[in-house]
Design the sequence.
């Protein structure tokens, strides 16, 4: 089967899969999930074998980048066995993981040995009390130790991800870039997306645009537009005098849908064609009804891509536009 079959109605080629392996997490980040989150029963979560079958189908249709997400993917038992199978696939150009960093202290070396090439690590604050307020967990030291373990493991690139909120952590963006530069890391600043109902803050008040962050950073650092790309929506700038890249993910202020190359599969097996839309295809039902039928699965993926919308329509003054939390979608 030709690898150009995964095309959407707008001519965009899908080459990037974000695959969630669990909806569970050991943190409760305020912008990602509620404190009393109800997780899916384990029987509803794709097995490791089913997750591999989904990945295999996408690889057969030309996907060359896979990012493993959650929840927190590193709390999924047996994950390393799945990663080793994916890491052995010569077709993949990139096998990455997005993590909160809590488990990296004892897992980083094993992940690298399994074939993971890149890591994204969430870090919204370098201040203990503020970090605890964001994550509802007092574990900053554990995450910082995880970052050091990841550095020692020798990943191709390590990137920090920071969700910036006005009046909550926007005064730390310079310190976070300095932290990244000192350690040879990259960092992306993300405008919060209106996913799931929250009570900790009002999104239209705390929205801090990428332009505001960049203007603040340029008072301390010299940033030059960069050609660096990872396959995701970040626009990157080189920090002059370092190897670090600063990225901006701007779902509100700069729509990035025109060159969208990705889809997501949730831990429950729902194919999400666009982060900003509720619609999804139930791959789990198909896989469990027709186990081992790879051709049927690939055909379903090709058909589903015909429904991929042209763009999302996030509005800063709207509290909830998509009911599901970010943790349920997989980042």
Sequence:
């Amino acid at each position: 089967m030709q690898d150009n079959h995964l095309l959407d109605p707008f001519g965009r080629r899908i080459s990037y899969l974000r695959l969630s392996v669990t909806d569970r997490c050991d943190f409760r980040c305020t912008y990602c999930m509620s404190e009393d989150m109800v997780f899916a029963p384990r029987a509803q979560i794709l097995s490791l074998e089913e997750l591999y079958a989904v990945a295999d189908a996408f690889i057969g249709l030309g996907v060359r980048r896979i990012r493993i997400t959650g929840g927190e993917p590193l709390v999924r038992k047996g994950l390393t066995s799945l990663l080793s199978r994916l890491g052995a696939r010569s077709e993949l150009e990139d096998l990455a993981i997005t993590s909160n960093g809590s488990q990296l202290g004892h897992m980083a070396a094993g992940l690298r040995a399994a074939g993971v090439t890149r890591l994204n690590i969430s870090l919204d604050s370098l201040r203990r009390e503020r970090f605890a307020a964001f994550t509802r967990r007092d574990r900053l030291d554990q995450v910082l130790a995880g970052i050091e373990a990841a550095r020692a493991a020798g990943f191709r690139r390590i990137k920090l991800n920071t969700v910036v909120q006005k009046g909550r952590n926007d005064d730390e963006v310079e310190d976070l870039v300095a932290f990244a530069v000192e350690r040879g890391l990259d960092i992306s600043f993300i405008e919060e997306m209106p996913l799931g109902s929250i009570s900790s803050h009002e999104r239209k008040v705390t929205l801090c645009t990428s332009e505001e962050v960049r203007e603040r950073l340029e008072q301390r650092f010299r940033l030059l537009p960069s050609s660096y790309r990872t396959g995701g929506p970040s626009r990157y700038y080189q920090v002059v005098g370092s190897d670090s890249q600063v990225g901006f993910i701007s779902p509100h202020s700069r729509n990035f849908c025109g060159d969208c190359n990705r889809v997501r599969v949730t831990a429950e097996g729902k194919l999400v064609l666009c982060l900003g839309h509720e619609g999804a295809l139930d791959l789990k039902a198909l896989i469990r009804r027709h186990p081992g039928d790879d051709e049927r699965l690939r055909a379903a993926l090709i058909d589903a891509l015909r429904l991929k919308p042209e763009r999302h329509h996030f509005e800063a003054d709207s509290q909830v536009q998509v009911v599901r939390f970010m943790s349920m979608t997989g980042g």
Remarks:
- Residues 140-153 form the longest helix (14 residues).
